[in-house]
Design goal:
Blueprint (H helix, E strand, L loop, with lengths): L1 E4 L7 H17 L2 E4 L6 H9 L2 E4 L10 E3 L6 H10 L3 E3 L3 H15 L3 E5 L5 H7 L6 E4 L15 E6 L5 H15 L5 E4 L5 H16 L2 E5 L5 H12 L4 E4 L15 E6 L5 H14 L3
Parallel strand pairs: 1-12, 2-3, 2-4, 4-5, 6-7, 6-8, 8-9, 10-11, 10-12
This protein binds FE3-S4 cluster.
The site of FE3-S4 cluster has 15 residues, from helix 1, helix 4 and helix 7.
Length: about 280
């Protein structure tokens, strides 16, 4: 059995930057807390915990220890609240997410209703919503466009969760235009997709054509990992999303000759290495 790795996969620059900033901060400032998980990957969270970074769920748990904002970012209210409490803040928001937040704010300030194509419960989307002064709506699917209020400003700005696929975002914009054409005077589409994610998705798509089985490695909560698995499945190849090597069941490999491996943007290299080692053990060449 042959194992083929995707050309682009694993830690993106935004996650790498966030992890490095947090490691440096714990070395310099001692124990600190992060508002939510640093990344959607339990192994990375565990490693940082050993270095003194404790994950907290909400602002209620903030005390005197420095607070890290994660790569997914937070709303403007949270930034203000942290400022008013006077605690030290290490802001590791990915610059690509910061750009989305700034666009949401700018569009709202200019009188646009802001429609964000993404999961309303995802941390990044909740944060971006919070920069638009209550004028933004998160819409997870084309079907959910029907839930938008009838009465919206006639000028609409559209953003996407950074990890969405190009194809799904294009389809979403088309559907929005078709459904509300009669009520829209201006539509501004801001491409807030992340290049790192888009490149990984393209590499996964290409790989899916070349193999007969795919493994996508990454945290179950990770949106970009989930999208990689979607991309592979949409190409018609059997795909398993796993968080770690020990989840792989030997029978999944039965009858397969070429196995592709890719990994989400928050998946560290050692998780990928462990999966490849396990695949080699289960089905040596
Ligand atoms: Fe940033 Fe893209 Fe990674 S938005 S955190 S570089 S997946």
């Amino acid at each position: 059995m042959e194992i083929v790795l995707a050309n682009e996969m694993g830690f993106c620059f935004g996650v790498r930057r966030a992890v490095e900033m947090m490691e440096e901060a714990t070395q310099q400032q001692g124990a600190m807390v992060s508002l939510g998980s640093v990344v959607h990957n339990p192994q990375v969270v565990a490693q940082l915990r050993e270095q003194g970074l404790e994950v907290i769920a909400s602002l209620d748990e903030v005390s005197e220890r420095p607070v890290a904002i994660t790569a997914h970012g937070v709303s403007e209210d949270v930034v203000r609240e942290l400022g008013s409490r006077g605690v030290a803040v290490v802001d590791t928001t990915c610059p690509i997410v910061t750009r989305s937040q700034q666009w949401a704010k700018r569009l709202a300030d200019d009188g646009f209703a802001v429609v964000i194509f993404g999961d309303p419960n995802h941390k990044e989307v909740r944060g971006v919503l919070g920069w638009a002064e209550g004028k933004a709506f998160a819409v997870p699917t084309v079907e959910a466009l029907d839930d938008l209020p009838d009465e919206l400003p006639s000028r609409i700005g559209v953003l996407s969760q950074t990890t969405e696929t190009e194809g799904h975002f294009a389809e979403f914009v088309r559907a929005l235009l078709e459904r509300r054409m009669d009520r829209i005077s201006e539509l501004r589409v801001i491409n807030t997709l992340c290049n790192a994610t888009t490149n990984q998705q393209a590499a996964a798509q290409q790989l899916a054509h070349e193999v007969d089985l795919m493994f996508v490695i990454g945290g179950r909560e990770s949106a970009n990992t989930r999208h990689l698995a979607e991309v592979a499945r949409e190409e018609g190849v059997e795909t398993h999303q796993v968080e770690s090597a020990d989840e792989i069941r030997p029978e999944w490999l039965n009858g397969h000759q070429r196995v592709g491996v890719t990994a989400g943007a928050s998946t560290p290299d050692d998780a990928v290495d462990a999966v490849v080692t396990r695949l080699r053990e289960l089905a040596p060449a």
